[in-house]
Structure formats: structure tokens, C-alpha cells
Amino acid sequence: MAKVVYRSKSLGLEIVESAEPVVFQEAEYQGRKVKLGKVQRGGSRKFQVYVNTGKKNKDGSIKVKKVSFGDNTGLSIKTKDPARRKSFRARHKCDQKKDKTKAGYWSCRMWSGPDAVKNMLKKWWN
């Protein structure tokens, strides 16, 4: 059973704690097995994630899209500062981003809390 640990209406953020482990769905992307919804470093930008597009391939398997997001200048994102977080989320209209196949959605998720980047990149088997 999941319980809400933190809720912020101004940021449009809700952090949920669950006793069950998070299970990422596996799929194929260009012949490789990938985990859907698991943010990783790398790709053409700072971060990348594989997502289900909601469509099917001709063989019936799910269509997977690679979404790359973040800068590629080497700068770190400073999510620990509440003023910067609030400004970023307002500037990018994060409360309106609902499409997981767009980079803006994932970028806004990275700015959702002070430890969001660390939590999204966390390895679950450690």
C-alpha cells in the first residue's frame, strides 16, 4: 500500500512511499532489451529514458521511443534551491506537462524536488 509522504500544491508535486518494489516494464528498442520509464545518463543529451508510445508495431509488440533531455554543456542542475525549482517549473509550465513521450515532461520531473535527480537515477538493486 502506498502512502503520501509529501504534497505541494504550488509545485504540483506528490511524493509517494510504497512497500512494494518498483517494477519497470521491459521492451525492445532497436533489438535491445530496455527498461521503460527508467531515467539513465547518456544519449545525445544529459539524460535519456525509453517510453511506451501507446501504439503497437506490426508484430503486435509495443512501440518504444527514446526520449533524450537535459543540456549537453556539462552544467549541473541545481534542484536543491527552492527558488530555482519554483522559477523553472513556472517558466516551463510543468503543471501542464502530461505527455511522457516529450522531453519537457521528464525535465519537469527532474525539477520536482530537491533530491529528484538522485532518486530518478538510483539503482534499485543497491
Describe this structure in words.
The protein is α+β, with helices and mostly antiparallel strands. The protein has one domain (23-121). It has three helices and seven strands; from the N terminus they run βββββββααα. The chain has helices spanning 82-91, 103-110, 116-121; strands at residues 2-8, 13-18, 26-29, 32-35, 40-41, 47-56, 62-69. The strands form three sheets. It has a three-stranded antiparallel beta sheet. It has a two-stranded antiparallel ribbon with strand order 1-2. The longest helix has 10 residues, at 82-91. The chain is globular, with a radius of gyration of 16 Å.
List the helices and strands and how they pair.
Blueprint: E1 2-8, E2 13-18, E3 26-29, E4 32-35, E5 40-41, E6 47-56, E7 62-69, H1 82-91, H2 103-110, H3 116-121
Antiparallel strand pairs: 1-2, 3-4, 5-6, 6-7
Task: Walk across the major sheet and give the strand order.
Answer: 5-6-7
Q: Which shape, going by the Cα principal axes? A: globular
Q: What's the alpha carbon Rg, rounded to whole Å?
A: 16 Å
Distance from first to last alpha carbon: 22 Å
Could you give a short account of the major beta sheet? 3 strands, antiparallel
Short synopsis of the structure:
The chain is α+β, with helices and mostly antiparallel strands.
